[in-house]
Structure to design on (468 residues):
């Protein structure tokens, strides 16, 4: 506005300069006319003298008529010049008054600019303080949500680790069972081998005794070494004897049984101890995981409890404000909020029940368009009153409303403004809404292609009207 006033002042100064130039030109023209008038007066005097000297009356009358015509023309020109001069002077006085008025307006706008700068600085400080407070409080839901997400992630990780440890424990138990089975088989094979060895040793001793006895008997009977018995018996070397076949068959069977037993695992006891140590460690880790899961579940339960309490508290406050605002907007009726679909508030949905005057209680979707809009505005303002802010911007909220509902909406805004420190910025084209505001801001096009911001203080104008 100050820039507009300065531009108007410059334009007025330019027009005043043009008027002054025109006034100077008119003054010069007036001087020329005065000089011509003086010249005409002199010629008239000369003509009068000549007329006095003329002897004939008709010639004198003609000269007087000519002189009177000239004088009339000169008087008419002088009168026009005087009128033009007076008009220029009047216009100059008007321009000077306009310039003085614009200068006063410029000083007033400068004062308003200073006051606005101070107010902007104050609002900036208030805004910084409010932003700090909002930043300190707004992060709480996000913090709780982040903690809950972290706890859920930790639970998922713990569950995955528990499953992995369970799988490892099952695999270790299976390996231990296999090792125990192998150890028992090895022990059984070892016992059987020891038994067979004992039998074989006993039989070998018995055979040795038998051989010794046979050798003794051969020496006693044949008086020769056993190696010479074949020669003595005239048996070809390599001929199989029944007794030797039976011995060799049994010897082969014993060898096969010994080979079938396989090698003995000497590390079975060590491996069993290692598996028992792993089982003990896995059991301790399982206990730690179960304890961590219990703590996480306890933390989640605590967070859910606190969230439910806060949600119910906020829900009750919003519901109370909604009931009051609905009655104010509709001039009667009743409305309330209702949690549906689940008993847990954290998982429940929200249903809006409303009953305008003359209608039964029903859900929001069954109301008319204007009633739905007013009910939605009442709910939004209820949430806003639960957690108010210094500034609220409303963009075309009165578009779906008729004139009566727009008037009720304006009454509601005035009640909220009077009851708190909230100020509303309303973007609208509705004349009723604009008429109920304290100050109007708009854009006008004073010249083609040039937009200009215009503001009107309706509150100050109303005060001046009442004072007048």
């Amino acid at each position: 506005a100050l820039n507009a006033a300065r531009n108007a002042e410059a334009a007025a100064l330019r027009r005043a300069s043009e008027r002054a130039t025109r006034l100077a030109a008119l003054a010069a023209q007036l001087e020329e006319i005065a000089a011509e008038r003086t010249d005409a007066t002199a010629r008239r005097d000369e003509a009068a003298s000549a007329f006095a000297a003329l002897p004939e009356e008709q010639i004198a009358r003609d000269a007087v008529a000519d002189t009177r015509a000239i004088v009339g023309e000169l008087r008419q020109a002088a009168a026009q010049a005087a009128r033009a001069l007076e008009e220029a002077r009047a216009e100059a006085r008007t321009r000077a008054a306009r310039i003085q008025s614009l200068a006063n307006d410029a000083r007033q706008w400068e004062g308003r600019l200073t006051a606005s700068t101070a107010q902007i600085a104050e609002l900036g400080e208030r805004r910084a303080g409010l932003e700090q407070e909002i930043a300190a409080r707004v992060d709480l839901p996000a913090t709780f949500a982040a903690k809950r997400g972290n706890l859920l992630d930790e639970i998922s990780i713990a569950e995955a680790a528990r499953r992995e440890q369970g799988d490892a424990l099952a695999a270790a138990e299976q390996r231990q069972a296999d090792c125990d089975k192998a150890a028992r088989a090895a022990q059984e094979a070892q016992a059987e081998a020891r038994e067979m060895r004992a039998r074989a040793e006993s039989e070998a001793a018995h055979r040795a005794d038998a051989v010794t006895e046979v050798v003794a008997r051969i020496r006693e009977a044949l008086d020769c070494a056993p190696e010479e018995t074949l020669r003595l018996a005239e048996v070809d070397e390599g001929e199989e004897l029944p007794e030797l076949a039976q011995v060799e068959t049994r010897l082969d069977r014993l060898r096969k049984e010994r080979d079938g037993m396989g090698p003995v695992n000497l590390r079975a006891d060590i491996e069993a101890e290692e598996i028992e140590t792993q089982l003990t460690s896995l059991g301790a880790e399982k206990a730690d995981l179960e304890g961590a899961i219990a703590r996480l579940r306890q933390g989640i339960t605590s967070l859910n409890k606190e969230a439910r309490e806060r949600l119910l508290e906020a829900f009750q406050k919003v519901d109370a404000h909604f009931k009051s605002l609905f009655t104010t907007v509709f001039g009667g009726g009743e409305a309330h909020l209702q949690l549906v679909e689940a008993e847990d508030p954290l998982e429940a949905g929200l249903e809006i029940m409303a009953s305008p005057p003359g209608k039964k209680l029903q859900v929001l979707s069954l109301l008319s368009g204007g009633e739905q809009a007013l009910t939605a505005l009442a709910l939004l303002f209820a949430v806003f009153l639960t957690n108010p802010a210094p500034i609220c911007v409303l963009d075309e909220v009165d578009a779906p409303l008729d004139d009566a509902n727009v008037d009720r909406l304006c009454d509601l805004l005035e009640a909220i403004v009077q009851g708190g420190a909230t100020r509303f910025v309303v973007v609208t084209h509705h004349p009723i809404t604009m008429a109920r505001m304290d100050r109007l801001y708009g854009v006008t096009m004073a010249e083609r292609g040039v937009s200009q911001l215009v503001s009107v203080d309706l509150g100050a104008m109303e005060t001046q009207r009442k004072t007048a």
In short: The first helix runs from residue 2 to 53. The mean pLDDT is 78. The first strand starts at residue 334 and ends at 340.
